[in-house]
From TrEMBL:
Domain Transcription regulator TrmB N-terminal: start-end pairs: 22-88
Organism the protein comes from: Haloplanus rubicundus
Full protein name: TrmB family transcriptional regulator
Pfam family, one: TrmB
Cross-referenced InterPro entries: TrmB-like (IPR051797), Tscrpt_reg_TrmB_N (IPR002831), WH-like_DNA-bd_sf (IPR036388), WH_DNA-bd_sf (IPR036390)
Amino acid sequence: MTNNTTTNAETDTLVEEVVGTLRTFELTEYEAKCFVALTRLREGTAKEVSDVADVPRARIYDSMDALQDRGLVSVQESKPRRFRAVSPREAVDLLERECRSRLDRLGTALPRLGSPNRTTGAGEVWTMEGEAAVAERLATLVADADSEVLLAIAVDELLNDDLVDALADAVDRGVDVVIGSPGAPIRERLHEAVPDADVVETWTWWDAHPIEAGAVTSVCMVDGDALLVSADAETELPGVRKHRAIWTDSAEAPVVGLMRPLLSTAIHG
């Protein structure tokens, strides 16, 4: 009895998770519940879907029509009508293609909104916070590199897959990539993931590893122009910390001139 209860609870949790995820793809709650129920059944009548999905019978048909329009459900015009869900793999592929199409349209349209007469102010420095935001900015800076990337990094949290891929791609483009870290596990990961990069040990900004609270977490300079410096910062919540960073893509920012020789010396030695 305990095992069945646990299994049912786990299934309920999984159903709730999948329904919630499907709703992010612009399915209504009823449509998402119907598709999940139909996936569990593989095929069934409106009554069977209603019973499994806990959706009012009157809402089954319009939900199925919408799912059919999205290519997620096939309909058999029998009496009673029967419905069949595409396979989970087909569903994921279909939704992925929809997302890619939307992103492609956005990528085409969004740049057209920029003012051709507005330029970035010389020497502007920007701030950001949050692990994901800082890691994404690091990856973007590296992805834009033409000739050189100097990166010092002391925490695993910022070295996500996107940044590692950007570093590997930069090396493949012929960019000179030099990475310094005080952490042996970080250096080992980089040696394996980006074998053609120059990975070295550096302690310029750190006294110990793992680093102390409040210390610099990364310093990145690209092509001698763009610069990002991040640090571990306390928040108002006890025991909770986050990454904060300043960055610029302007060589005219004074901080770039100050950091260029220090970073080069710290990594190259």
